[in-house]
Here is the input.
Amino acid sequence: MKCYRCSGVMVYEKFFGIAEEFFGWRCIFCGEIVDNVILENRHEQRKR
Ligand SMILES: [Zn+2]
Here is the structure.
């Protein structure tokens, strides 16, 4: 998994959201966070 912003290395981590815990990818260089919901939304947008 590569960061779409800086092409850095991303690590799979557990995050604590407002209501629930979730897993997602975090860039160790720029701190960008991508979770499954974000990835799905991006995929949906690409289809349209
Ligand atoms: Zn990055």
